[in-house]
Write a structure and sequence with these properties.
The complex is a heterodimer of chains A (about 80) and B (about 240). Chain A has about 80 residues and is an alpha+beta fold. Chain A is about 45% helix and about 20% strand. Helices cover about 45% and strands about 15% of the residues of chain B. The chains are: A alpha+beta (about 80), B alpha/beta (about 240).
């Protein structure tokens, strides 16, 4: 989550980061998949920040958004499809 | 209707066959339906056919593209005469103002590209946009520098891109957002590219158009022109032979 916060702050500054209401809901280490909550108005802002991540803890990384949904239940259903 | 996403600027090393294959598969997995890569003007037809076959196996449409770097407007005209009918997409890297103006008004040019890091040589101003809006050229923006740059360089780049995007929108010049990457790890999903375009002021609709419709329209138009049935804009051969 540090890398996500870092990318948001780097790209949008502390003011921009404060608009995102970012929080980690779930992280599956095996699947390397995380569920992140953010405010609807800041979806594009967070998506751009995630796309700008090129490394984490010194390792080259790419973060992709698999699905976006209003509720966690709907998100899980989307991912199942 | 589902959008057909396109990346018109993938830099693949044709000599490294396995890396090329990996890149094509990755693009397909990320949701692209059309990709283009800059080819050398002397590229043989067999190589293109092979690449097209590889892309078709992955469910992707392959488009041939050539990047021209002319030094003078005359050089540009010469290169266009020589290469226009060989490639589906022609991009001109505008290294000076005279070339930029000539490229913007020439209807054979599809994409206008400017040096991303040399901000004094980004000639996309109101005059350039006006010329481009009367021809068919689109402004190409690569997202790679947004991923690899940091700090003041990225800030200055974003500021320039924001100014250019505003001018392009005002003069109805299409914008094509491409990746411009050669490494797999820098390849992003189409919606992520659109989100990066949001950083330089494109709204969601316009950004999605920049990674789908704008690119597809260029390819469709050029394929029609390069087809055997094309005569002139709006005129094509429907039937030929003795019974006409």
């Amino acid at each position: 989550m540090d890398a996500v916060w870092g990318a948001v702050v780097k790209l949008h500054g502390e003011y921009g980061a404060s608009l995102t209401s970012l929080s980690l809901i779930d992280y599956d280490e095996e699947e390397k998949m995380a569920v992140v909550r953010t405010s609807l108005a800041a979806v594009n802002l967070v998506r751009a920040s995630l796309a700008s991540i090129t490394s984490m803890a010194g390792k080259e990384t790419a973060v992709h958004v698999l699905a976006v949904s209003g509720t966690i239940k709907a998100l899980r259903e989307k991912l199942k499809q | 209707m589902k959008k057909a996403f396109a990346d018109l600027h993938l830099r693949l090393n044709m000599k490294d066959r396995s890396a090329t294959l990996r890149m094509i598969n990755k693009a397909a997995n990320l949701g692209y339906r059309l990709i283009a890569m800059p080819l050398a003007p002397e590229t043989r037809m067999e190589e293109v056919t092979k690449l097209r076959g590889t892309c078709n196996e992955s469910g992707i449409d392959f488009v041939t593209r050539v990047d021209l770097r002319p030094r003078t407007p005359n050089d540009l005209m010469y290169q266009l005469r020589r290469l226009r009918r060989k490639f589906e997409v022609v991009c001109v890297s505008c290294e000076n103002k005279a070339v930029a103006r000539q490229a913007a008004k020439d209807r054979r040019v599809d994409l206008l590209a400017f040096p991303l890091l040399d901000f004094r040589r980004r000639f996309f101003d109101r005059a350039e946009a006006e010329l481009a809006s009367n021809s068919l050229a689109a402004l190409e923006i690569d997202v790679k520098p947004l991923l690899v740059l940091e700090g003041p360089a990225r800030i200055r780049l974003l500021s320039n891109l924001r100014r250019e995007a505003t001018i392009a929108e005002k003069f109805h010049v299409p914008i094509v957002v491409s990746s411009g990457v050669s490494a797999e790890r820098l390849l992003r999903k189409p919606r992520e590219m659109a989100a990066l375009a949001f950083l330089f002021g494109l709204d969601e609709d316009f950004a999605l158009k920049a990674v789908s419709q704008s690119a597809n329209a260029i390819v469709k138009r050029n394929r029609e022109k390069l087809g055997s049935k094309f005569v002139a804009p709006g005129i094509r051969v429907v039937k030929e032979g003795k019974d006409c």
